[in-house]
């Protein structure tokens, strides 16, 4: 049996041809293909402004910077996510305030947010984990009540919707990643969406060294970054983007097969999709029983030719945050800790077949 990886990007010959055309042109840095990428996001998500950036972490960092968040400020983040969500808060000089998740959705629990708000709170970063919208309507209401900014971390959720509206279009900013594990990849890359022209203008300046045109000449109006996306990366995105509906549909069908096959095994907690949400299934993430060693399961499945891994981190449980804040995760973030310690991501990508899923499920049973 050939190895079934956790993820395999679906790069077609047309995608490769498109990138090669840009490479041969010699015009490699931010240019017309980046502009096309941004326009496609605006048109598809019915937003007003989009900026392509070098990666999904840069998008979050720049969003915080543009909103003026820094030392002395607090930013609410879910306790369960990829580390970048909280790392950027630290890197900007602010303090991440962790909130536990809903164990059924793996998203931040909105009923716990208000208790975490203080006079220093400036923003909330809800994560649409694994491609499922957080309770963004409730979160926006809380943010409005306390005059807080909202930066949607939609790194995993390109194309996901809440009651028909695309995630990433609710808050001050919507942040997307185009890492190889995402539905569409540019290798590294990301985009920042906003409906506010002043925020967009500042993003455009800061992503390119602080450059602003003045009287037809280049001026450096701020201390900026090199967060630009290359044109050949953008060309790769544009070549794939037309397939996004098909990619999401395929992932949803594959997830449905997993759910159908795994429902016969009640020892596993399966992901759920609340009404009104369109899950894009960047990751198919289950919980295994606490009496089973997750590390052994991963090793056994790899020996049988199946790639698996944990899905995300309980961020305050990681050494960097544990050393700095010494938080009791068992007491304060039990769901996030459970999702991390018992979580298992199973293979899910467009090239996977129903037979592959059957093999993955049978191997999981054999490995637990």
TrEMBL record:
Active site positions: 182 (proton acceptor)
Family under the similarity heading: Belongs to the DegT/DnrJ/EryC1 family.
Name of this chain's protein: DegT/DnrJ/EryC1/StrS family aminotransferase
GO molecular function list: pyridoxal phosphate binding; transaminase activity
One record GO biological process: polysaccharide biosynthetic process
Keyword field: Aminotransferase, Pyridoxal phosphate, Transferase
Native species: Chitinophaga lutea
Alphabetized InterPro entries for the sequence: DegT/StrS_aminotransferase, PyrdxlP-dep_Trfase, PyrdxlP-dep_Trfase_major, PyrdxlP-dep_Trfase_small
Record PTM N6-(pyridoxal phosphate)lysine, positions in chain: 182
Superkingdom classification of source: Bacteria
């Amino acid at each position: 049996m050939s190895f079934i990886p956790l993820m395999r990007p679906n790069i077609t010959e047309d995608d490769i041809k498109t990138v090669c055309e840009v490479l041969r042109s010699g015009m490699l840095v931010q240019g017309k293909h980046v502009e096309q990428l941004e326009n496609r996001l605006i048109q598809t998500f019915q937003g007003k402004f989009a900026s392509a950036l070098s990666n999904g972490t840069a998008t979050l960092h720049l969003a915080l910077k543009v909103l003026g968040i820094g030392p002395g400020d607090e930013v609410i983040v879910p306790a369960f996510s990829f580390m970048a969500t909280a790392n950027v808060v630290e890197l900007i000089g602010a303090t991440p305030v962790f909130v536990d998740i809903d164990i059924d959705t793996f998203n931040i629990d909105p009923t716990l947010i208000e208790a975490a708000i203080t006079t220093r709170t400036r923003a909330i970063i809800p994560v649409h984990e694994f491609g499922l919208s957080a309770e963004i309507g409730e979160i926006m209401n809380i943010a409005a009540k306390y005059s807080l900014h909202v930066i949607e971390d939609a790194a995993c959720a390109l194309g996901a919707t809440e009651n028909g509206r695309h995630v990433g279009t609710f808050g001050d900013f919507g942040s997307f990643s185009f890492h190889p594990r995402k539905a569409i990849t540019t290798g590294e890359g990301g985009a920042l969406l906003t409906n506010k022209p002043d925020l967009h203008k500042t993003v455009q300046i800061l992503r390119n060294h602080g450059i602003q045109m003045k009287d037809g000449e280049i001026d450096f109006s701020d201390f900026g970054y090199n967060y630009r996306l290359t044109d050949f990366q953008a060309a790769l995105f544009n070549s794939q983007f037309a397939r996004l509906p098909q990619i999401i549909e395929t992932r949803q069908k594959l997830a449905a097969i997993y759910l159908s096959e795994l429902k016969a095994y009640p020892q596993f907690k399966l992901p759920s999709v609340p009404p009104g949400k369109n899950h894009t299934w960047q990751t198919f993430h289950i919980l295994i029983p606490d009496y089973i060693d997750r590390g052994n399961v991963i090793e056994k499945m790899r020996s049988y030719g199946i790639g698996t891994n944990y899905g995300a981190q309980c961020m305050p449980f990681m050494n960097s945050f544990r050393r700095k804040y010494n938080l009791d995760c068992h007491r304060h973030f039990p769901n996030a800790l459970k999702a991390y310690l018992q979580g298992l991501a199973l293979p899910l990508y467009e090239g996977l077949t129903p037979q592959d899923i059957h093999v993955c499920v049978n191997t999981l049973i054999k490995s637990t």
